[in-house]
Write a structure and sequence with these properties.
Structural class: alpha+beta
Number of domains: 2
Distance between the termini: 45 Å
Number of strands: 8
Bound molecules: zinc ion
Shape: globular
Order of helices and strands: EEEHEEEHHEEHHHH
Strand content: 15-25%
Largest sheet: 6 strands, antiparallel
Helix content: 40-55%
Length: about 260
């Protein structure tokens, strides 16, 4: 997967922090400011520290929670984000010289403002974009809820595309179409929609596994987001259709068309 956020789906330190695009300027990258970390030990670690201080135990791993700052390296920006998560103080072994040092590790649970999962093309409908933004906010604390927001983005997209949300059943009651049926309606409305509908269906299945008991991982949600991004690019980024039109034009003229000076 190309999304660098997936590298935060495990324990990381300031040494292994991946380069992540700054949500403010988009040019710099944000990384963990090692001096900013505020840590809270859990009771077991408090007890261990007491034993170590009394000389009754050797050094051992400490665990708890932490919060800190991510800072953008672009001097024109310098944006600071809040990060918090699970904390571990453990041994790091240097890959090159084998030297052991004790450092802080974080398992990210929250970043504010959130790092975007992806940035949809500017002409993407606002309700679709805001559901994707909500998914980015939830990603670390509750991946399954984030996947549900991606499914919500699909529902909003289908509404914009004119696919009905509800129908009146035989007992004159208003019922909601399931996402599955709406995606099928979208796919059969126009042959050109078929591939996008197939992609949306895959995103929907990922969201389903999140809401039916089995918890999704951050990596699984990011895979769903990547597919949704692909579908939105097909629908809203004109670059693809312009390129296809250009290819047709060159082939028709059997040369590269030149503008007159
Ligand atoms: Zn920045």
């Amino acid at each position: 997967m190309s999304n660098r956020l997936v590298k935060l789906d495990s324990w990381v330190s300031y040494l292994s922090w991946p380069p992540l695009a700054c949500p403010e300027c988009g040019e710099g990258t944000v990384s963990l400011d090692k001096n900013s970390l505020m840590t809270i030990r859990d009771p077991a670690s408090d007890e261990l520290v007491m034993l170590i201080d009394a000389g009754l135990e050797g050094l051992g791993e400490l665990t708890g929670t932490c919060s800190g700052k991510l800072t953008c390296n672009n001097p024109q920006c310098g944006r600071t984000l809040l990060v918090s998560g699970d904390w571990s103080h453990d041994v790091n072994v240097d890959d090159h010289n084998g030297r052991e040092t004790w450092i802080d590790y974080i398992r990210v649970r929250y970043i504010s403002p959130p790092l975007p999962i992806f940035t949809p093309h500017a002409s993407t409908p606002a309700k679709v974009t805001s559901a994707i933004h909500a998914a980015a906010e939830l990603l670390w604390i509750n991946p399954s809820a984030a996947a549900n927001q991606l499914r919500q983005a699909i529902e909003e997209l289908l509404t914009v595309k004119g696919i009905k949300r509800t129908y009146i059943n035989g007992s004159h009651k208003r019922k909601t179409y399931p996402a599955h049926a709406r995606i099928e309606m979208f796919g059969s409305a126009n042959p050109a929609n078929a591939e996008v509908a197939e992609t949306l269906m895959a995103v929907k299945w990922i969201g389903n596994s999140g809401s039916h008991g089995s918890d999704l991982t951050v990596a699984e949600v990011l895979e769903g987001a990547e597919l949704l991004q692909h579908a939105l690019t097909e629908l809203y980024d004109p670059t693809n259709s312009l390129r296809r039109a250009r290819i047709k034009e060159i082939n028709r003229k059997k040369r590269i068309p030149r503008s007159k000076n």
